[in-house]
Amino acid sequence: MPLDLGAKGSCHIGGNVATNAGGLRLLRYGSLRGTVLGLEVVLADGSILNCLASLRKDNTGYDLKQLFIGSEGTLGVVTAVSILCPQKPNAVNLAFLACPSFSQVLKTFITCKDMLGEILSAYEFMDNGCMKLVERHLKLTNPVAESPFYVLIETSGSNSTHDEEKLSHFLEHVMDSDLVVDGTLASEGKKIKALWALRERITEALTCDGVVYKYDISLPVEKLYDLVTDMKVRLDTDAKNVVGYGHLGDGNLHLNVTAESYSHSLLDAIEPYVYEWVSQYYGSISAEHGLGFKKKHYIHYSKPKEAVLLMQQFKVMLDPKGILNPYKTLPSKAVR
Amino acid sequence: MPLDLGAKGSCHIGGNVATNAGGLRLLRYGSLRGTVLGLEVVLADGSILNCLASLRKDNTGYDLKQLFIGSEGTLGVVTAVSILCPQKPNAVNLAFLACPSFSQVLKTFITCKDMLGEILSAYEFMDNGCMKLVERHLKLTNPVAESPFYVLIETSGSNSTHDEEKLSHFLEHVMDSDLVVDGTLASEGKKIKALWALRERITEALTCDGVVYKYDISLPVEKLYDLVTDMKVRLDTDAKNVVGYGHLGDGNLHLNVTAESYSHSLLDAIEPYVYEWVSQYYGSISAEHGLGFKKKHYIHYSKPKEAVLLMQQFKVMLDPKGILNPYKTLPSKAVR
Predict the structure, then answer these.
(1) pTM, 2 dp
(2) Strand A48-51 to strand B182-186: parallel, antiparallel, or no bridges (unpaired)?
(3) Closest residue to A218, CB basis, from B57, B289, B314
(4) Which CATH architecture has domain B210-319?
């Protein structure tokens, strides 16, 4: 499958497509907009729209299926999917690295793209706040020296000798140039799983930490962590923890704030500040999740009003009675 | 650029996006639906729709830009594009191989995906009829032994030593198993260009051969050449040449028929037979080019009538006066 994500144990493919799920390997295999080849959709009037082709190239008229990918079920219900699956890799390798600063995380990424190139299949990062949470709440062990940032790099390729050679040249280079201060490698199932758990189980650790305010954001990669730093300063002792992690290779940050209990004043301190912050750098306030009903009124921070009006016209055309997943994705009144 | 195609010397990026151009390396870098990150579009009422983000992940509302990709300018005019460019490869290698049958072309492709994996960037094929045309009309030289089929394989990677090793293991294997009877390799600019010319200049050679009837078709890859074989038998001496070439890795066939002069009876022998043939295997009658005005009435061979009706509703909504690239892409009357 070209898609892999933390929710893989419980999510459904129809939901993945309806929310245009991103996940861990978008960096390598691209978005569902490129990998979904066909869809069957049930429309609001109960009729079935069959766009279930499995062709890589098909330019016969408009690509209707795109409208349903990421529409969160508000335009139709996805009932069948045809998806392009890449060749299964013969070799998978993982590196878990400790970086002394975010600027080193970025430099490591640039080096990585150059030296690992086509075998790079994930470039994830987490800050030390995240590491402390998985250690405390889930009893996981940090496999490297404590550092402000950690990076998880995955390679997937057809030749294990070549891949290991590329990875060891890369590691030599980043250690010699002090981009990375410590690291560990894995090429067999159990250790790979243990290293991925450090990154994939952050969400679980956060829920153990208290009430969680969650933000899923896209930003230019060099600005990615500034938002976390600013938020830490802004919230200070009002928050229990302010942490950042995510899919750095895709410019996708998961910003999370925890507190002992729900507080309206804390929420007011975060929102709309976080959306204004993202908007000034032309980022996205909802990167790989949908707007749902919580964020539909904030859509104008990422989209101009002409675009929202056009979306509302599509909604009225395809679902005139508003019966498909009502109250989601779009504001019901015109955005000004 | 993630896109490369025969028309690279004269095409424009706005046109590429408007027609959802496919080309030579879709196999590796995917379609424009995945690589186009943002668009600026002028709508029928003269207003500008700004969807010019450059984010890899953005799920804030419906992805409006998708509607304009591949709509052939009938819904809006693309005036700016933001596109995701992959890392430039350090090493590029080409192999030009001679195959004794189409079934061997297919087996070579399967072997190729397994042994070259992530470095494979193009898998093109041409039949001997195409080779004879480029030899006769363009004075190009066949670099390998004359065979019923030829395959052009391109690899693009970050490490030339690794890539050459993969390629030579692959070649050893396909020669030993008699999938390939002769072959030549290229890793430097001039020879690479000369080998690509054999494939890229087929269109030019065809125009020198007489009147050309051109078809751009997607089919399940194992059925791809049967259409050419059937057409040869069907047209017999009525055609001067019936040849097939194309992007085998994407299931995309370019079927071409030439004749000394235009003949309505020859066209009637080809159409709608070719569209019926494609339709029975759920193929596409317009793979990487658009329907334009010549093929708009044949859309129902690839799309169900519910889909065409929905497309017509989009057209009416976005261009009520029908002023954008009129008479193209969609039939004006309802398809039954």
Answers:
(1) 0.95
(2) unpaired
(3) B57
(4) 2-Layer Sandwich (3.30)
